[in-house]
Design brief:
single chain, three-stranded antiparallel β-sheet, 13 strands, 9 helices, alpha/beta, 340 residues
Length: 340
């Protein structure tokens, strides 16, 4: 945020008004990723930030739920490379998938390059605010109000049962499911691991290339899985749709907080939930039951939850897989159970 806001007066804030720390920015991005009605897309070139764009709801009420707000910023060093158009089109696709009927934005009237970009993808002016911004060095700036109306007939229709995709991992086939916007399921195709007997990192991509028409969330999940099975902490999450009781979601949220390469006991999760509820204790068995209902394996890392003594107890995809996943992450202190 500070990088992009420092380069132009055309954005909403000045750099000194942005007090976000890196930790707070990460929290913001994770919250956006978990919101099925919001999208934040970062563009990276050679590992460096080139720009970002996002959509979010104008409001949460029934009367406003079809309207999305759009924002974008590209660092000057990367202007003219087509990044802005790619990010804008990706956000429009996400808006359709999220069920929005209209995407809206405001742009400084003198920002002709941005206006040309927006017009080229279908945005049209519908009004002006002659005193929209008061810039420090400039004074009042006129804002153009633009919107893109998404034909309801073009909106992505949900197939019966949702969307599915397949991923071939080193530990067996994986089925992905989605509601069209967020990932709602990730499970191994078999309950036990037959082969390999030892984990080997793949030399290349672990799956066939995704087709252009594949859902954005599936492409994001494939990227996450590619990084994960290459032995790296992906460092991001695609949007997730967690369906369960309030207690189950509380358990899953704690699981999401377990860092890559570390473990947490069922008892510790139970103590945290008990503390949040202001009660004396919570059953570890109840936590185990919630873990078994986790429909989004790996990304909600129930494989990082172990017994009080570090034993690998309970995993729907098999204890051998659980052991190998923790081995791949370099987790210490976890040990196979006597029955594994």
């Amino acid at each position: 945020f500070q990088q992009t806001h420092a380069e132009t007066d055309n954005l909403l804030f000045y750099p000194d008004e942005n007090s976000f720390t890196l930790k707070e920015e990460r929290k913001f991005l994770l919250e956006r990723a978990r919101d099925p009605k919001s999208v934040e897309i970062l563009a990276l070139l050679d590992g460096k930030l080139a720009g970002f764009a996002g959509i979010g709801p104008i409001g949460r009420g029934e009367k406003l739920r079809f309207r999305a707000d759009f924002g974008i910023s590209i660092l000057k060093a990367y202007w003219g490379l087509g990044i802005g158009r790619a990010l804008t089109n990706a956000c429009i696709d996400c808006a359709r998938a999220a069920g929005y009927r209209q995407v809206e934005l405001e742009v400084v009237a003198e920002n002709r390059p941005a206006i040309s970009l927006y017009e080229s993808v279908g945005f049209a002016e519908y009004g002006r605010n002659p005193k929209g911004f008061f810039a420090r060095r400039i004074g009042w700036q006129e804002l153009i109000l633009m919107r893109l109306e998404l034909d309801a007939a073009e909106a992505v229709s949900r197939p019966s049962g949702g969307w599915t995709a397949h991923y071939d991992s080193p530990l067996g086939g994986i089925t992905l499911t989605s509601d069209g916007t967020a990932l709602s399921g990730l499970c191994f195709d078999t309950a036990e691991l037959d082969a390999p007997t030892s984990y080997a990192r793949p030399d290349g991509a672990a799956h066939a290339p995704a087709e252009d028409e594949e859902l954005l969330v599936f492409r994001q999940t494939r990227q996450w899985l590619d990084l994960y099975f290459s032995g790296k902490d992906p460092g991001f999450l695609p949007p997730l749709r967690m369906s369960g009781t309030a207690f189950q979601k509380a358990v899953w949220e704690i699981m999401l907080s377990i860092p890559y390469g570390q473990t947490m006991s069922y008892g510790e999760i139970a103590r945290r939930i008990a503390a949040s509820k202001g009660i004396a204790r919570m059953s570890s068995q109840a936590v185990g039951g919630a873990a078994r209902q986790n429909a989004i394996a790996l990304l909600i890392p129930c494989h990082r939850v172990v017994g009080a003594d570090g034993s690998l107890t309970g995993y729907a995809a098999g204890l051998r897989r659980k052991e190998m996943l923790l081995q791949m992450e370099g987790a210490r202190g976890a040990r196979p159970s006597s029955s594994a």
